[in-house]
Write a structure and sequence with these properties.
84 residues; mainly alpha; two-stranded antiparallel ribbon; 2 strands
């Protein structure tokens, strides 16, 4: 994962990294993301709510989608990001 930018909120760092992994094909469309617990450990954040915040934003932008009981997945065609 890229070096953390000074004063960048953790959820934005997670969003940027997920987008990078999708863009490079490491996490292709349909890929199931690790659990929020695993992501919190991977990104070294103390709270799973930080991971959920990032995932919620990526779902709202259409880059990810969730299926209750199954997990969160990379959308088939992630739109170009204009912010967040």
């Amino acid at each position: 994962m890229p070096a953390q930018r000074k004063f960048e909120p953790h959820y934005r760092r997670i969003i940027a990294d997920v987008r990078e992994r999708v863009a490079t094909g490491e996490w292709p469309p349909g890929h199931k993301l690790p659990s929020t617990k695993a992501l919190a450990e991977m990104y070294e954040v103390g709270s799973q709510s930080t991971v959920r915040q990032a995932i919620t934003i990526l779902i709202e932008t259409g880059e990810l989608y969730g299926h209750q009981g199954l997990g969160v997945f990379v959308a088939e065609r992630a739109p170009k990001s204009s912010g967040e």
